TrEMBL record:
It comes from the Bacteria. This is Uncharacterized protein. InterPro entries: AAA_14 (IPR041682), DUF4143 (IPR025420), P-loop_NTPase (IPR027417).
Amino acid sequence: MIIRKEYIDYLIKFKDMELIKVVTGVRRCGKSTLFIQYIDYLKQNSINDDHIVFINMEDMKYEELSDYKNLYNYINEKIVDNGKYYILLDEIQNVDKYEKVIDSLLIKGNCDIYITGSNAYMLSGELATLLSGRYIEIKMLPFSFKEYVSYHKNDNNGYEDLFNKYINSSSFPYSIYFKEEIILTNYLEDIYNSIIIKDISMRIQKIDISLLNRIVKFMFDSVGSMLSINNIANKLTSSGYKIDNKTVSKYLKLLTDSMLFYKVERYNVKGKNILSSLEKYYAVDIGIRNIKLGRRYSDLGHIIENIVFLELIRRKYEVYIGFIQDGEIDFAAFKNGNIEYYQVTLSLIDKNVMERETKSLKNIHDNYPKYILTLDKIGTNTNIDGIRHINLIDWLLEMY
């Protein structure tokens, strides 16, 4: 079992604080395993078993606890003294009105509460209002390349071979155990179907699954491309699917709430404002994209761009597409009041490509760091007019 140290450390950082620790992330990204690892940490630090309450709401043995009153009574019966209790509720969105349980436990004063959910919407609406200022969100992703390498550290493969396997298999943690492609494909299909059925279809009535699947395929095919609601609707309509802008917008919201896709807005570098038109979408896992589209090596540029986006949000950057006059920056990444600019391309060996990829960065006249990430084996770790050229694999493996 690979210890998800980054996330464990974050839970430890907020341990015993009067804040709800909310772990969000796509299905099967490792949230349940994270709780198991954190419980091991608690036990190693002298927390008794009877002061730890862990409930996975997708486990059949807890089915009767899907009623929020039953859930509260079950937990309340285990709180028998004034000592600190650690309450860990996995996939809590399966409990209707679960926010009432959380609020009631919080006011007891001796409950350290941790919850997970597979939908971004769980932090909107009533829960967000009820817990305003009283929760911290921990956004969890499937394996980074660095974590993937740590599992394969005893293999004889070099980093390049492992990177090739990483983009051709999947970043979902459990997928590393599947050696046969057909088994991996079935596993990823199961994850995809769980997202579509449990996180989307159950949320909304009269959803057209066939149309939703078509939109998903279109979005996977358009990773890294600038899109608008209107041009998505037009493209689907021209393919024989009659759909209006309102329906496209609703379905895209469902797909991003389920964390199958991430929407990235444009940032006007000169005007320092967010632009309301056009955005890009990135997939949470290249493996699911592969099974829906087939492996497309001509798409490698967009694939590595997707991986860089996920790594930036994993490193807790707020990420936008950089817009400048007559140009675009792949990513403008914000953290702690600073900005970093990133271009991502396969190679800079071709002179024309170098001129194209550096042009937009050179037209930014602030003093924030600028990077170009490539798969080049030579010519990296260099400075091109103030722009750092870094090998992508080295960047993915660096400490941060």
